[in-house]
Every structure is written in C-alpha cells, then in structure tokens.
Amino acid sequence: MQTGVSLVGVGSAKPSITLSNAELSQVVETSDEWITTRTGIQQRHVLQEGSLTSLATTAAQEALNMASTEAASVELIILATSTPDDLFGSATQVQAALGATQAAAFDLTAACSGFVFALATAAQYLRTGTFKTVLVIGADALSRWTDWSDRRTCVLFGDGAGAVVLKASDRDRLRGFELRSDGSMNACLNLSYAAESQELIPGKMVQKGTFQPVTMNGKEVYRFAVKRVPEVIEKALFRAGLSTADVDWLLLHQANQRILDAVAERLNIPSERVISNMARYGNTSAASIPIALDEAVRDGRVKAGDLIASSGFGAGLTWGAAIFEWL
Ligand code: UT7
C-alpha cells in the first residue's frame, strides 16, 4: 500500500476586478502610503459578479490539468472556505461543476488556516489507503463580509481561490505538519452570526439573522501570529526530522508583509526565500497559500524537490504548518 502523499498539481483563480489603495481612499479615511507601509498591500481582487464556486472550480481545474488528472478520477474534494455560496457547503457545487462524479465532497472551515488544515485532513485519507486522489481547494470571498466603513479591516482582504491535487505515492513528500487552535482568543477575529428574534407563534420566539461583517483586533492577531507561527513551523520541521536550514521556501498565509518579514527573521530565513504576493492580492484567507504556491511554481521559482515550509494562521484562533516537497 502507498502511504506517502505527493502534491502533483496546483492552480489558482482570481476575480478580474481589482481595487487599488487609491480607490479605497475614496471609501474610508486612509491612504496608499498607510496601507503600503503597514501591510505591503497595493491592490486586491474582488468579486463583482460570479460565485465563489466558479473561482474554486477554475482553480481546481487548473490543478487537475497540471496533474494530468481527469476530474472523474478524483475521490475526495475538500473545500476550505469561510465564505461558501451555500452554508450547507459549496464543495458539492464544485464537484458538479468539475464533473468529479466519483468524489465525496465537503467544506472545511478553519478561516485563514483552512488550506493547511485541509491538506493535513486530506493526507489522512491518502495515508490510510482510503483514497488515492484528493483535491484540496482554499477559496474565500471576504469582500462579501467586509465592513466598508471600517478602515481597520476593509483595506486588508481580497478574493480568490487556489487548489492542489494530492496523490497517494511511495515517496512521502508531505514531510510533517502541526495544527493548533486557541478558542479562548476567538473574539480577536470574527465573522459572527448576528442573531435577531422573531415571534413564531404568540409567546414562542425563534432566532433569525444574518452575519455581522468581519471584526478584528489587528494588534492582538499580529502579536499572536509573529509568536505562534515560527513556533509551529519549527515544531512541524522537527517532526519531519528537518530544520530551517533545509527550507527552500517560506510560504506563509499572506496576511501582512510585516508578519512575513518578522517570521522569516525569527526563523533566520533570508527574504529571497520568502514567497509573497501580498502587494497584488491582499489577504485572501484560505486561498492565499495555494495562490502564492501556484504563482511560484508557474514562474519557475519553486522547482521539483524544493522543500516548502507553509503556515496558515487566523480566526478561531487557528494556526498550523505543513512541510512538503514540491512534486
Ligand atoms: O488573516 C487573518 C490574520 N490577520 C492578521 O494577521 C492581521 C494582523 N494584524 C495586522 O496585520 C495589523 O495589526 C493591521 C494591518 C491590521 C493594523 O496595523 P497596525 O500597525 O497594528 O495598526 P493599528 O491597528 O495599531 O493602528 C494604528 C493607527 C490607528 O490610529 P491611532 O489610534 O494611532 O490614531 C488606526 O486608527 O492607524 C490607524 N489606522 C489606519 N489609518 C489609515 C488603522 N487602519 C488604518 C487605515 N488607514 N486603513
């Protein structure tokens, strides 16, 4: 039985519409200078029309093409998202759009850590021999849940999707992972159900409501990220019998360029080994790692055999790291 896991294809998709810092300064009191120096973001892609499902499907199809894999041979689809088109789950919509008729499909929610959590989840099915081909997608459209009057959050997020194809293999290229959560800090970053009451019959109230836009204590989340992310990467490397000296690429959730720089410094990884597309995408939540991986593979930076230390972190709070070799 093959108990190893290999990543054999990657793809990504983004909405065609971009929103620049200058455009945002027409919406809230902010400036290109503040956003660029505090976050590294220059623009973000936002969904004007279309669905999260269509973004996720395009990313997944690209990954399948790179892997020369037919959709019909995919046995499992995990869609990491906090912003599905359907709260019952959008993975099945992606499954139908791809024609992945043999695949089980479900959503997984771990906010900006979603891709890493989904990767680790997918690996369990592959290692146990349950499935041989799995699609992991990270896709989010946080622009739908942004408070456009809150300058502390509305400048940060963008929309997009990224996907990888995983296969069972003799050689294990997913070398290690580590997943963590701390619900006691949940209030730092929320996209919460906003309950209202309605009277169903006299004297019997039931809830109704929608979701409140994203709220964040940026400073707390920043502090958490620069402390916990290096720790979790070092732990995952240790489990894999590796050290930071073995890492070819540091691929972090793209939340803030200053977080990327601080984590790289703590791990003693030089900046030329840090993958960043912050400037063009902003924070695309569960999509940010696979989008950045897709770009780095397609432009030739990441080569076969390169060791990548990836880490997602965010709401929950959740954080995790996955150490893998490309191809
Ligand atoms: O993806 C999930 C994980 N999320 C993260 O990792 C985000 C982590 N946090 C961060 O990246 C940063 O904390 C932010 C980018 C969100 C904020 O940067 P900061 O350096 O922590 O700024 P701050 O919140 O301390 O705000 C500094 C000042 C404040 O003004 P006062 O109170 O000093 O007068 C803010 O009101 O900057 C002000 N400010 C802004 N000014 C112009 C906050 N947002 C803006 C803005 N434009 N967009």
Structure, described:
- The chain is an alpha+beta fold and 327 residues long.
- The protein folds into 2 domains: 4-171, Peroxisomal Thiolase, Chain A, domain 1 (3-Layer(aba) Sandwich), CATH 3.40.47.10; 176-185 and 215-275 and 284-325, Peroxisomal Thiolase, Chain A, domain 1 (3-Layer(aba) Sandwich).
- Helix content is 31%, strand content 29%.
- It is built from 10 helices and 15 strands.
- Strands 1-7-6-4-5 form a 5-stranded mixed β-sheet, with helices on both faces. A 4-stranded mixed β-sheet has the order 8-15-14-13, sandwiched between helices. A two-stranded antiparallel sheet has the order 2-3.
- Strand 4 (76-80), helix 4 and strand 5 (104-108) form a beta-alpha-beta unit.
- Helix 7 (218-239) runs parallel beside helix 8 (257-267).
- The chain starts with a strand and ends with a strand.
- The model has no long low-confidence stretch (mean pLDDT 97).
- The structure holds oxa(dethia)-CoA.
- Oxa(dethia)-CoA is lined by residues 30, 34-35, 38-39, 112, 151-152, 155, 218-219, 221-222, 225, 255-256, 259, 283, 314.
Summarize the structure.
By secondary structure, the chain is an alpha+beta fold.
The counted number of beta strands is 15
CATH superfamily grouping of the largest domain = Thiolase/Chalcone synthase
Indicate how many domains the architecture comprises: 2
CATH class descriptor name of the largest domain: Alpha Beta
Number of helical stretches of at least 4 residues:
10
Which ions and ligands are bound to the chains? oxa(dethia)-CoA
Average pLDDT works out at: 97
Report the sheet with the most strands, covering strand number, pairing sense and barrel closure: 5 strands, mixed
